[in-house]
Amino acid sequence: MRRAKPLAGTGAAGQRHVMNIRLFIERRWISPYVFSCFVTLTEKALGFDVRVLDAEHGDTRTGEYLSRTITGRVPSLEHGDFALAESSAIVEYLEQAFPEAPVLPLGLRERARCRQLMSWLRSDDTAALREARPTTTMFYARAEQPLTGAARVAADKLVAVSERLLAHGGPHLFGQWCIADSELAFMLQRLLSNGDAVPERVRVYAEAQWQRPSVRKFVERERPPL
């Protein structure tokens, strides 16, 4: 594997110095899956190093990387001699390994609903929206075309799901903040960043979640040119 450039540890203020944790990411810092892992690590105040992998140069296809992560995908987490890929699995692992400062709801049913939402956000239901409003339109140039067809259907369903989850009127989905709040806000920002219409209640929620310190640490990072 071509040696990836190490970056400084990026845990939150007051972080615990757990220096055997590494997060492997794509080089532009625009992946929603990297975002989820980064926010989880930051919320848990875990000290960690970041390594940038360049798939175009084969960093994710080496025998070493494939044998450690199994699926060879990014992001991946390395904790001591254990490596794991797939963002939802990484979040679950970190929640069990470091239960302090939880990022998943404590209640059985709330946690199940949180997992449901996280799975749905990664599903085919949102694929057309992700294609029409890729993350490059959030962090680089805005989209030039209006939503049409399947993307509009996906956006409407995203808004409807958000409205149902927010019907209780609170600031978070399940009482206290959880990682699903940040993931849902990220998906909604695909619309908000590009000036697409979103109901006021949903917009206020998404913009408030977008100001969370752990989220801002990701959003405000310096990025290489597109």
What tags apply to this protein structure?
226 residues; alpha+beta; Glutaredoxin; Glutathione S-transferase Yfyf (Class Pi), Chain A, domain 2; 2 domains; globular
Describe this protein's structure:
The protein has ten helices and five strands, in the order ββαβαββαααααααα. By secondary structure, it is of the alpha+beta class. The protein folds into two domains: 6-101, Glutaredoxin (3-Layer(aba) Sandwich); 108-214, Glutathione S-transferase Yfyf (Class Pi), Chain A, domain 2, CATH 1.20.1050. The chain has a five-stranded mixed sheet, with helices on one face. Helix 1 links the parallel strand 2 (21-26) and strand 3 (49-53). Residues 1-14 have low confidence and may be disordered.
CA-CA gap between termini: 24 Å
> What Rg do the Cα atoms give?
17 Å
Count of beta strands: 5
The largest pleated sheet is described as: 5 strands, mixed
Strand order of the largest sheet: 1-3-2-4-5
Average pLDDT figure: 92
β-strand amount: 5-15%
Structural class: alpha+beta
Number of alpha- plus pi-helical segments: 10
Q: Work out the count of structural domains.
A: 2
Name of the level-1 CATH class of the largest domain: Mainly Alpha
- Extract low-pLDDT stretches: 1-14
Give a brief description:
This protein has 226 residues and is of the alpha+beta class.
Task: Please describe the topology of this protein.
Blueprint: E1 6-7, E2 21-26, H1 32-43, E3 49-53, H2 63-69, E4 76-79, E5 82-85, H3 87-97, H4 108-121, H5 127-132, H6 136-139, H7 149-165, H8 179-192, H9 200-209, H10 213-219
Parallel strand pairs: 2-3
Antiparallel strand pairs: 1-3, 2-4, 4-5
